[in-house]
């Protein structure tokens, strides 16, 4: 069996200003802090002699390739994304960047922010606009009923709050 894998489908091209800033900060950290530190460690490991059996040298070179690959990916991604920094005119409708609170029939509430695929973090309540939950929510209004399929189970929620960050 070969190592070839089909390319992943491209995510949406939208990102919040906070998400773009995080990606730029990651590039800066990798390029200005992490890469020089690893380069120095590889240089010192190379001075020790036989590189074929020098684990610090081998793993350092591997880490440099990983850093360079991530920097290339982030740089290209930052060039192609669109930063959405304005609030929609219709604030009663769910669009990209909205904080949405939904409630089920038992009164349990969940709050999510709809963000781009490069910045989602479910633990912080940030969900990708490409996710099934976000797709079900986009375009809905206050008090709308939303049916979300979670595996084989279908759950009904009601939109109880929509907010946008200034």
Automatic annotation (TrEMBL):
Database matches in PROSITE patterns: GREAB_1, GREAB_2
Protein's job: Necessary for efficient RNA polymerase transcription elongation past template-encoded arresting sites. The arresting sites in DNA have the property of trapping a certain fraction of elongating RNA polymerases that pass through, resulting in locked ternary complexes. Cleavage of the nascent transcript by cleavage factors such as GreA or GreB allows the resumption of elongation from the new 3'terminus. GreB releases sequences of up to 9 nucleotides in length.
Keywords tagged on the record: DNA-binding, Elongation factor, Protein biosynthesis, Transcription, Transcription regulation
GO biological process, one term: regulation of DNA-templated transcription elongation
Lineage: Bacteria, Pseudomonadati, Pseudomonadota, Gammaproteobacteria, Cellvibrionales
Coiled coil location: none
Molecular functions per Gene Ontology: DNA binding; RNA polymerase binding; translation elongation factor activity
Annotated protein name in UniProt: Transcription elongation factor GreB
InterPro entries, per the entry: GreA/GreB_C_sf, TF_GreA/GreB_CS, Tscrpt_elong_fac_GreA/B, Tscrpt_elong_fac_GreA/B_C, Tscrpt_elong_fac_GreA/B_fam, Tscrpt_elong_fac_GreA/B_N, Tscrpt_elong_fac_GreA/B_N_sf, Tscrpt_elong_fac_GreB
Family: Belongs to the GreA/GreB family. GreB subfamily.
Residues covered by the Transcription elongation factor GreA/GreB C-terminal domain: 92-164
Residue ranges of domain Transcription elongation factor GreA/GreB N-terminal in the record: 14-83
Entry-linked Pfam families: GreA_GreB, GreA_GreB_N
